[in-house]
Amino acid sequence: MSSKKRILSGMRPTGPLHLGNLHGALANWVGMQDEYDCFFFIADWHALTSDYEAPGDITRYVGEMMIDWLSAGLDPEKSTLFVQSLVPEHAELFLYLSMITPVPWLERNPTYKDQIVQINNKDLSTFGFLGYPVLQAADIIMYKANGVPVGIDQVPHVEITREITRRFNFLYGNVFPEPEAILTKTSKILGLDRRKMSKSYNNAIYLSDTPDEIGKKVSQMITDPQRMRRSDPGNPDVCNVFEFHKIYSETGIWEAIDPQCRSAEIGCVECKKIMAESLIKAMEPLHERRSYFMAKPELVKEIITSGSEKARKVAKETMEQVRAAIRIKD
Ligand code: TRP
Ligand code: SF4
């Protein structure tokens, strides 16, 4: 048995991952693989709570997401990588937890209240959508995870998980540890148009973009909006391209660009070319791993199957304890 602390996190397979996802979550997971006993999973049932009308897309995105993960450096030798629907025990635990979760806890969930108001192209007034945090609680405590690396938006869900855990332990005996959120720093990466990088804004650079596509997208990026002409001095402090430089270019490069931009010695076209080169170089190891796995679809399938079997072993043990605690079987 390893003495490492266990962490668990998941992502909904709703589309290809972009640099915002990489820096807001995935890179952080990759960095935790040696220190923690890691469980990472693709939450396809959670995707279904809102996208139940288009389930075909979800299945396709599951495979693509695993390739995104592997290309980013998640390693099936180190971490348990699995798919939620391949571990049906999650549904059973969800059912037991739903028996003890008061509906008002779910109705006052800020994410739920927001989404119900904001998303009006889908009917979210379903039982499954209200119960989203209960399924998430099942995901987390199934593996007795101590920590849940998530962004700030997911903190209310981890909080509900803690409440449900306490209630379960109080009613049936101490089966589960109370998990804690491990806050991920939010990504400073903005989209090409300076809004939050998002699939739905069509402003994202994807992990799967080729060097050519990256070059094209970078050339379309909005820079300092005050800098209209090449001869205008610019302000790197308000320029998104400069933010990218600080992440992807060597320090010497962007330190030199800073005064050149302010004095209009360098133009945005050239500055972007340099940044695109740095970004493409930084993405090279990801691109290499991607081509490796794209050429081996059987291997990717096998990684999904064996990771899910590994997870399922743990889940089965937990469910034995849960059924015994609830005295559903003797
Ligand atoms: N709700 C999470 C999200 O939208 C995904 C998720 C499902 C999750 N189950 C989880 C995250 C368990 C952490 C732990 O990002
Ligand atoms: Fe931004 Fe570079 Fe243009 Fe300056 S020169 S405004 S840092 S893109």
What does this structure look like?
The protein has helices spanning about 20-30, 45-50, 55-70, 90-100, 105, 110-120, 125-130, 130-140, 155-170, 210-220, 240-250, 250-260, 270-295, 295-325; strands at about 5-10, 35-40, 80-85, 145-150, 180-185. With about 325 residues, the protein is mainly alpha-helical. It has two domains: about 5-190 and about 295-325, Rossmann fold; about 210-290, Tyrosyl-Transfer RNA Synthetase, CATH 1.10.240. The strands form two sheets. The protein has a three-stranded parallel sheet with strand order 1-2-3. A two-stranded parallel ribbon has the order 4-5. The longest helix has 30 residues, at about 295-325. The protein is elongated, with a radius of gyration of 22 Å. Tryptophan (TRP) binds near residues 8, 136 and 148.
Task: Write down how many β-strands occur, each being a DSSP E stretch of 2 or more residues.
Answer: 5
> Count of DSSP helices?
14
The CATH class name of the largest domain reads: Alpha Beta
Head-to-tail CA distance between termini: 28 Å
Strand content: 5-15%
Architecture (CATH level 2) name of the largest domain = 3-Layer(aba) Sandwich
Taken together, the total number of domains comes to: 2
**Topology as H/E string?**
EHEHHEHHHHHEHEHHHHH
Helix content class: 55-70%
Radius of gyration over alpha carbons?
A: 22 Å
Q: State the low-pLDDT regions, or none.
A: none
CATH superfamily membership of the largest domain = HUPs
Provide the list of bound ligands, each named once.
Answer: tryptophan, iron/sulfur cluster
User: Average pLDDT across residues?
Assistant: 96
- What's the main sheet like? 3 strands, parallel
CATH topology of the largest domain: Rossmann fold
Question: Strands across the major sheet, in which order?
Answer: 1-2-3
Identify the overall geometry.
elongated
